[in-house]
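Sanity check. The docking grid for flavin-adenine dinucleotide depends on where the pocket ends up, so I'm generating a full predicted complex first rather than guessing from homology. Inputs follow.
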Amino acid sequence: MVDEVIGKECCGCKMCGDLCPTDAIQFVTDQEGFWYPQVDSEKCVKCGLCVKKCPVLNETVNPNAFMPDVYCAWILDEEIRMKSTSGGAYSALALRMLDDGGYIAGCVFSDDWKSAKHVIGNTRADLDKIFRTKYFQSDTAGIYRSVRELLDQGERVLFCGCPCQNAALREYLGKEYENLVQCDFICRGINSPAAHRANVRELEKRYGSEVSFFNFKNKSAGWTRLGLLVKFKNGQQDFTDRDTSAWTKGYINYNLFMRPSCERCHFKRLPRVSDLSIGDFWGLESSPENMKKGMSVVMVNTEKGRRYYERTLPYIHSEPQDFQTALNGNGAIRICPKYYPRKRGEFFRCIDTEDFSKLVTRLNRDQALKQSVHRLLSRGKHAVKKILHMQKG
Ligand SMILES: Cc1cc2nc3c(=O)[nH]c(=O)nc-3n(C[C@H](O)[C@H](O)[C@H](O)COP(=O)(O)OP(=O)(O)OC[C@H]3O[C@@H](n4cnc5c(N)ncnc54)[C@H](O)[C@@H]3O)c2cc1C
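Predicted complex below; grid placement will be based on this.
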């Protein structure tokens, strides 16, 4: 059964759990904080569905998808744009669905901000919880069943999740639904919920209070700063950015706490698996205002996605761009993260005994040195250029 053949290739989509006709599949969380299927041999009737439908084992493709048409976009509602992770393209797509009377399925934080799961809603209040990106793995148990129930009742649904979760939904449904729109995002790789918990644990200890709000990629210092804002129940707050945030450094410099399967992601291929793909439009020269507020890349991958995106235009500023520009700024569209097994292993060995930030800083020491040397060299280069320029003048 699936637990015997998949091992660490498992992407943790949990679809096999929804699929199993005898509920024989449970999920066990390993020491790194990632869950894997475990089949109860007493309940299992050996139908083989879990293996036949697994998106990783099947390398799921979408036969309706073509090479994407690419747009640079941002939501017109300024407040939502500032609160969104990129340009707020997701919220524009979601508002279209809500205004059509449909449902949105996406990821929310738990009440204590320590974990995340997928839910379905059909109100603006639901959108307030679903929007904004949580950079660690969302628990999707039960979501595939719930989406199918709504689709079979004739309801419209917008599903948003990682490419692997979208591939899982395709496999689970096994047929095209005109009333479903699937949206994935450019995914660098998904992080361990245990790493997020370790970060929260340290912050709560440092501030002597529980978290009351957690915002990855807060834009108060600008979109490109990759701000991380955490508020506490005692009124204090913690703000770090790409140069000071332990989370961001651990994630971006060495992929320290990413799921093993992301190193060989099956869904970074083109054409994509979903109707629409969204992400940050890195690498596009634009006004200081746009660099502060954020811009989305929208990839239209299917005819259904195109029709839906066209109907989203009243909520959004959208301009066509060429695919190469998007690709140049965003390697994560195609490239899988590289792992540093020694550092990654050390991270997970010490996650319960060392403070999160100290651990990440220790494992990043050589990177910090490299960055200082790089900074010194580019300052030196700049100074030499200035002197040569003055001499010429
Ligand atoms: C782990 C991860 C890695 C990413 N890597 C890149 C990258 O390398 N390059 C890039 O351009 N973009 C990346 N993105 C996508 C980007 O960060 C934004 O999510 C995307 O651009 C949408 O932004 P937005 O402003 O339109 O919407 P937002 O308001 O941010 O909406 C986010 C949507 O994603 C869903 N979502 C949020 N967190 C999760 C989660 N943990 N699992 C599944 N679904 C979730 C929400 O339900 C919502 O539908 C990544 C996202 C994640 C979760």
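Relevant for the grid: The mean pLDDT is 95.
Also worth noting: Residues 84-91, 106-107, 116, 130-135, 138, 160-162, 185-188, 190, 278-280, 296, 330, 332 surround flavin-adenine dinucleotide (CB under 6 Å).
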